[in-house]
Design goal:
Distance between the termini: 23 Å
Number of strands: 16
Helix content: 40-55%
Shape: globular
Radius of gyration: 25 Å
Strand order of the largest sheet: 3-2-6-7-1-8
Structural class: alpha/beta
Length: about 600
């Protein structure tokens, strides 16, 4: 049963109450598999149907770009054209859009520079400190991580004042800075009036992952600055058992804080509609350790939970790869399914999860050797594989704004020239034409394209010379396909007035986080799997030191790790495989490993 309250099914009483509530402040505590996404979708549908003549919009924010995309697709499927009245974004995405539209009210440029690469942020901080005669930190990257956490939690730390001054001086923002700047912007009365007229409802999904800074922004959006009361009806939806990003400042207590500050009505969704009996019981056992006791009933599907050990990581990977091949070839065992369920399993219905990406490397290799298609998300530095592709993306960035220093720095690194030589489009064209690298020189005409609508056509016309190494040629062809596909989607989904260089740049940034429409088995860290579900899930690397992570020593840290395990096992609907290697290879040779203490909780 993939959809607990599909259009032809009647919602449960607890679901129906959350859908129908007209209270101005609502908190929905939704356990894994309890149908919370469909509750959100059906509530939005009801609100739109009741306000068919309204010009107001509903803002639905969630934690990740992928979760926002999935929620957006759910709205489109259910609502058709009416879904245009629903704005679905991440909290950071909403903040960025708000600042691009109104940021000049607080002194920001019309197209504020967003620093997304850590090397650009480190460059800016080190230069600012040097220019002001301040000794730089020993590890700038670690300092930036501490600064990010401090701003997320609303605390202070060394170099915070200097970093904020460096950003202000550069007219730039980073991701934590988006939140504070947007909160400041909403204190401008004229802006607040405009924004309040736009949004008539706010829904916050995955609310257990809110940081203090995100919470402050959302409250500033929905409440009055004069009396502190909610002006805009707001619903928080989440599950404190699934709060697994405390390392980034998230705190599930913000859900309860919202309930207390605004006297919110609370609905608890406890029934598990996603999982089969065996998996629901495993999840319930972990939930009980977290202080949540919800007895599991019997489901139509029995499901299966298996725990397997392998001598080493390579053998563990082969075990998992064989399990995947068996599912794709033979399907699920009919004995674990409901009477009306089909046994066939598609590759994208299978996920391999691990606490850290390093634990997935061996599985990746084993599946690749068997010819199994794979899909995984990527970081910004990994999306485009060729130097030519990365240069092309910086052309988009430079067309967005010639004032953004981070673009100059990246082009300087890619082309090995002084940054002052590539600070304008004209300068970049000259550098490319004269460049000794033929793959760079071939992009000179692309840099001269003035309209974003002509960009991918110009890329397609690029003919890299035969002297370019075969590996680079192959990577370029792959990058060209990625950029062409990104443009095709952007062009189809974007209003004509919004087809700009800046908006295409933002769209590409979202695309690099992973293509969830591509076929293939999903290899994901547990954090990236949050909010998603699969027919079959394997969780690998279940040793003490891996999950829980060896750095988790306090009671608080270990509780966070247990929540991570809860998220992992509750992603499965019918088949759950838990594996571990009995030994792991280190630089000192093979070392014996102890099973994760969490495995003993599975019954």
């Amino acid at each position: 049963m993939t959809n607990p309250i599909a259009r032809d099914l009647v919602p449960s009483p607890e679901q129906a109450a959350a859908i129908a509530s007209d209270d101005i402040a609502v908190v929905v505590v939704a356990s894994a598999g309890s149908g919370k996404t469909e509750v959100v979708a059906r509530r939005v549908e009801r609100l739109l149907e009741e306000r068919v003549d309204s010009l107001g919009r509903i803002l639905a924010v969630t934690y990740t770009v992928k979760a926002a995309a999935e929620l957006r697709e759910r709205f489109r499927a259910r609502l058709g054209n009416a879904s245009r009245r629903v704005e679905t974004e991440t909290v950071h995405g909403f903040a960025h859009a708000l600042l691009r539209q109104h940021g000049t009210h607080i002194g920001l440029p019309a197209e504020p520079e967003l620093l997304v690469r850590d090397e650009d942020r480190a460059e800016l901080l080190d230069r600012w400190l040097d220019d002001n005669g301040i000794e730089p930190p020993d590890d700038t990257f670690e300092t930036l991580r501490r600064l990010d956490l401090a701003r997320s939690t609303g605390t202070r730390c060394e170099f915070l004042e200097e970093w904020e001054q460096a950003l202000e001086n550069a007219g730039a923002l980073d991701y934590p800075g988006l939140l504070s700047a947007a909160t400041t912007l909403l204190a401008v009365k004229s802006v607040k009036r405009q924004v309040s007229r736009v949004y008539e409802q706010v829904i916050v999904d995955e609310a257990q992952n809110l940081t203090a800074a995100q919470y402050d922004l959302l409250v500033a959006l929905a409440s009055s600055g004069t009396n502190g009361q909610l002006n805009t009806p707001t619903m928080f939806v989440g599950d404190d058992k699934q709060s697994i990003v405390s390392f980034a400042g998230a705190d599930p207590k913000h859900m309860l804080r919202f309930a207390e500050e605004f006297n919110a009505i609370r609905f608890d969704l406890t029934a598990n509609f996603r999982s089969a009996t065996a998996i629901a019981r495993a999840a319930e056992a972990i939930a009980a350790q977290l202080g949540h006791v919800n007895p599991v009933g019997e489901f139509a599907a029995q499901g299966e939970v298996a725990v397997r050990e392998a001598p080493d990581e390579a053998t563990e990977a082969e075990l998992v790869a064989g399990w995947v091949e068996g599912l794709l070839a033979d399907g699920l065992d009919p004995d674990i399914l409901a009477p009306d369920e089909g046994a066939t399993v598609e590759p994208e219905q299978i996920a391999i999860l691990a606490r850290a990406g390093s634990a997935l490397r061996s599985v990746n290799a084993a599946l690749g050797q068997r010819g199994v298609e794979l899909v995984s998300a990527s970081t910004s530095g990994e999306w485009l594989a060729s130097a030519s592709g990365r240069i092309a993306m910086e052309v988009v960035a430079l067309r967005t704004s010639e004032d953004h220093k981070s673009t100059h720095w990246q082009l300087s690194r890619l082309l090995d020239v002084p940054e002052d030589d590539v600070s304008t489009i004209g300068q970049l064209q000259e550098v490319l034409r004269a460049h000794t690298d033929p793959s760079a020189a071939a992009l000179a005409e692309v840099a001269g394209v003035e309209r974003v609508s002509d960009f991918t056509a110009a890329l397609t016309a690029v003919d890299l010379p035969e002297s370019v190494p075969p590996e680079e040629l192959s990577a370029w062809e792959s990058d060209l396909s990625l950029l062409a596909e990104a443009w095709s989607r952007f062009d189809a989904e974007t209003d004509r007035a919004a087809v700009t260089w800046g908006n295409f740049k933002l769209f590409c940034a979202k695309q690099q986080r992973g293509d969830d429409l591509a076929p293939g088995v999903r290899l994901l860290t547990i954090h990236k799997a949050q909010g998603r579900e699969f027919l079959a899930v394997a969780v690998v690397g279940l040793n003490d030191g891996q999950l829980p992570d060896f750095r988790a020593t306090s009671e608080e840290d270990l509780t966070a790790e247990l929540r991570t395990f809860y998220v992992a096992i509750s992603r499965a609907r019918r088949s759950l495989l838990l594996t571990r290697p009995q030994s792991r290879m280190t630089r000192y040779g093979s070392r014996a490993s102890s099973p994760s203490r969490y495995l003993a909780l599975i019954r």
